[in-house]
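Quick note —
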Amino acid sequence: MSSPTTLNWGILGAGSIAKAFAQGLATSRTGKLRAIASRSQEKADAFGNEFKLPGRYGTYDALLNDADVDAVYIATPHPHHAEWAIKAAEAGKHLLVEKPIALNFAEASAIVEAAREHDVFLMEAFMYRCHPLIGDVCARIQSGVIG
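Predicted structure written out below.
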């Protein structure tokens, strides 16, 4: 388990989006990349070597069983987002799911329900949600300058 000020991350999927996330996380003051899972041990090991990770798993389930991982970034192909987001929530992992969060309303609803049921944080990885410019726009709307 991480310290109170550090969130230990695992990534499901070792593609280019996962690498971009890992590179961004490397500059974080509050997050640390701990583990990678891929559909093959070879891909997990290559990714783990590149980012010097202690956890390298050839199955997604193995990463979800890692007690040192607090949060999971779901970077699998889109059709697998719902399945693995729900399994991660059931494992007690906080969730950041690459967009789109699901393929349809029913899948998205099931993910939200799983996160609520297991009391884990859930967010879709949509970059504009946390972009600094959004805060500025919201402040301008609230002040009446625009909107």
